Amino acid sequence: MRYEDIIPESYTQTYSRQGNKIVRKYRCTSGARDGRVVANPATCNAPINVKASQRLKITKRKGATQMKVKASKTKAYSPGSKRLSGVQRIRPRTTKRKTS
Prior knowledge:
alpha+beta, 2 domains
């Protein structure tokens, strides 16, 4: 019996850009990193580094608009992004149930 047989997977496989290349990554489906795309599936359940997350929030606050403009240009014109859209499968969104 393997580890995967006992513990249900807390990630799904996806693809991402790294420069102009397409690489395989994983989307976390549970835990604190739910919905985040990570390079290693073990990262989904790793403890969160609070100091690093606070620093990233400050950085994003400073240059969020500039980051959005650059990202939208890259996604529209980069050859890697165009290839990625063909490779990436469309996943059905899961809806959270209301508990009564």
